[in-house]
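Tokens in:
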């Protein structure tokens, strides 16, 4: 079975929470683990190259989320960063070291942001719906940032809930234009309120 990123319609790549990656050929009824570790040739490096190099949107916005007038420096020392995909583009959301300011790159164009990207526990979850990034922090703050209008809003109503952050999944549903919070331990799903 091919390891190329672009493959036939009858083949699926499945990535799980645990990081397990498997490719299934539904016609041949075979599978292959995608956890190959040849230096510079991983599943993720192929995915990144495919999406970043063939992006047709030449616009790029980079900014601090809370201060739309402040300019990001050329080098950003990050405490934590998270890549999310939206409409075939990677968006990077992160917190700087020290002041811990939120920042974003819409979309990520420089491949260096993907270097040494490790799957580790984060202090926030993020998802994208249309032009808005939704962030849920470990302190259960729900942040919305529209990267077109640069509007930043924080809602702390979830702090009243007794959620365990590690049990929560934040995702979006494009077709219904909904932001969804799922609680893995209780099995409950919540549709989040959006601004605007």
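Residues out:
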């Amino acid at each position: 079975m091919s390891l190329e990123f672009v493959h036939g319609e009858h083949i699926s790549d499945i990535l799980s929470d645990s990081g397990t990656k498997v490719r299934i050929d539904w016609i041949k009824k075979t599978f292959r683990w995608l956890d190959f570790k040849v230096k510079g040739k991983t599943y993720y490096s192929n995915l990144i190259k495919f999406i970043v190099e063939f992006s047709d949107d030449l616009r790029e916005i980079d900014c601090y989320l809370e201060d739309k007038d402040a300019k990001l420096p050329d080098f950003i020392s990050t405490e934590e960063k998270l890549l999310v995909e939206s409409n075939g583009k990677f968006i990077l959301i992160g917190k700087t070291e020290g002041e811990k300011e939120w920042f974003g790159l819409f979309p990520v164009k420089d491949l260096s942001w993907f270097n040494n990207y490790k799957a580790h526990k984060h202090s926030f979850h993020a998802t994208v719906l249309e032009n808005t990034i939704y962030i849920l922090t470990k302190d259960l703050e729900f942040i919305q940032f529209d990267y077109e209008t640069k509007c930043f809003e924080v809602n702390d109503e979830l702090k009243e809930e007794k959620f365990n952050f590690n049990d929560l999944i934040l995702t979006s549903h494009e077709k219904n234009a909904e932001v969804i919070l799922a609680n893995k331990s209780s099995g409950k799903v919540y549709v989040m309120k959006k601004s605007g």
